[in-house]
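User: Hey, my collaborator sent me this sequence without any context and asked if I could get a structure. I don't really work with proteins. Can you help?
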Amino acid sequence: MIERYLGNKSSIINHIMKEVDKLCNKGDYVCDIFSGTLSVSINLKKSGYRVISNDINRFSYCFGRSHLIANNIPKIDFESLGIDYNLYAENAIAKVKLIEKGVGYNFLNDKKEENSYVDLIVLLTYLDSISEKDIDPEHRKSFFFDYYTEEGKYSKFVSQRGSEGNRKFFTPSNGSKIDLYLNKIREWHKNNLLLDDLYYLLLSTISESVEKVSNTQGTFHDFPRTKYDSRAFKKLELRAPKFDNILSDIDGHILGKERDSMEFIKEVPSHKLLYIDPPYNFRQYTSYYFMLNLICDYCEIPDLNKYFNEVKYVRGQNMDKNFISSFCKNSEFISSLQKLIENADTEWIVMSYFNGRNHKSATAGDKGTILNELEQFFQTDLFESNSLKIKPIKRKNYQSYGGHKALEVNELLYIVKKRMKDEMV
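Assistant: No problem. I've predicted the 3D structure and written it out in structure-token form, which is a compact way to encode the shape of the chain:
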């Protein structure tokens, strides 16, 4: 999954699941209303819950389609895609044989799944080997190279402070590789050659692989202006996901498509528990992760020239789908939280809150204020009396800028039972 993501809950997922398991039975619906990278949603699926997942970001929807909704390794019709399977099969089989069967790869003990995984490796190996001549002339574009590498002819920027330079989100070679991947998939998609499961898996695989070699230190809101992050020099290659957490016989999951969670929650059916990991800082995630959204949107953008002609700012974002969350505003955080929970048809609430620096605790002296506000809020008539529990979990906080040492902080879990409607005064 995406590792360099603000608020990623991978480091505390076992603590979250422990609390969910206390309150829910296997098969219950659990709603992950700000799903982000889906680290919580996928673990809920793995643990036997039916999951309701939503996020405003396009890349989150793609991961939801390929990792949550899908329960199988997708089938691949190599003939329709114009791929000579035999050219890549031997190498793919050798790669899979070298994989140590363990966490994430236990599915390879099933011969049928192993064969399907070999097919996927063949497809990814093909995409890693293509050049422009393998793409229909109509789809030979170079937007990622041109706009997001320092050698690109449209990568020049002028900041609000007047500094100038060229964008360098990727090395030129990796930028060109992204163009090849997406242009070929766009060609297949336009010709209706990809079933949805495979289409979304390819987009999420590219997103995850690109994140590993991007010249960023946390988000795509900016990049090191004078140098490259060491990870950026790695050669971009497509990484097939581990399927242990994807393969499942449990269906019935529900996925929102880039919905405002404040609106989506009104349509969510009755569920046992609502997990809330809100964006409680000033950063707008559609801006900070616009590059991943662009990758997942690329094949469906009607007019690519028009789209890229309208990119703005140092980062080069097209603002058409930018979203401003009320949770990111100091004055609206508590009221937004209240509206969200009021509209949720749920029994239990589990909310994560990071007690470090954020929009509600900009200075050390303000930290206690939001924590007091939250404790008071969770003791209002919206919730059952004396049901609130607050559990601190120690974790390391890694900031996105260079030279910053990791700080030990508490991730607070607020666990509380919602009062039934007929009990409310």
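In plain terms: The longest helix spans residues 111-129. You can pass these tokens on to your collaborator as they are.
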